[in-house]
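New here. Your pick:
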Amino acid sequence: MGSKVRATHELLQAQAHIWNHIFSFINSMSLKCAVQLDIPDVIQKHGQPMTLSELVSALPISPTKAHFIPRLMRILVHSGFFVRESLNGGEQGYVLTDASALLLKDNPMSARPFLLAMLNPILTDPWQYLTTWFQNDNPTPFHVGVFQGVDSLVDVGGGTGTVAKSIADAFPHMKCTVLDLPHVVADLKGSKNLEYVAGNMFEAVPAADAIFLKWILHDWSDEECMKILERCKEAITREGKKGKVIIVDMTVENKNTDKESGETQLFFDMLMMVMATGKERNDKEWAKLFSDAGFSYYKITPCLGLRSLIEVYP
């Protein structure tokens, strides 16, 4: 009987171990939610243990979701990010721990920017393709995620095709096209999945699942960019497609950018002012540009040094 009980206990422990790993993502997502709701800062500013009712009243949440906050706080207490202290009258108040203090906005050592960056869908989604990455020759799961479902790509203003060649080599199934002015692509030869097309991005862009714009839009004014983006939207929605535009460009005035990098971005902005009709844009300026061009959704991820990866959807 003892051995059967022990076997059952071990089986239940094994099952619990698996379940713990299956649901472990809830820890990081709950913490991300707390940070986005500014819970650590709200409790810190309160100046003393904060009751549940006080916390709920101070949070920017829908009244219909107020009764869920205790459950969010319960798992965060369990994870060691907050502590409940007993107050007079039998109530309990939440206080910070050393860990949640590191998530305060004004903490010089704040881990908040890193947490939000690492848990951004742009960096978490590629993990869904880890198995695929092991099974092919693509460089990283990140590249697999960005180009997942993309069978055709047009590199607009791609010059001699340096970037397009790298993409074509990494994704042999993908048809890559470089679009540039006639004198740029006149004598260039393609390959099995790479071709060169002479054209003007202000007039038309070949149809594809994805349009790639690397360091293109910062050269042009908002009006000119809108024309380019409108042609790109036509290209990813033509022939029944519903693709995306992939942009590599700077996003200035980013709170998470260090002083030196931010200054370099401003240098580039001044350079665009003097050398071209363009500019480096901040998040709000990108949002307005995409909206004016008829797009409905976009994601900006600072992940390429001074530059950001921007995905725009119709």
Residues 2-22 form the longest helix (21 residues). The chain has a mean pLDDT of 89.
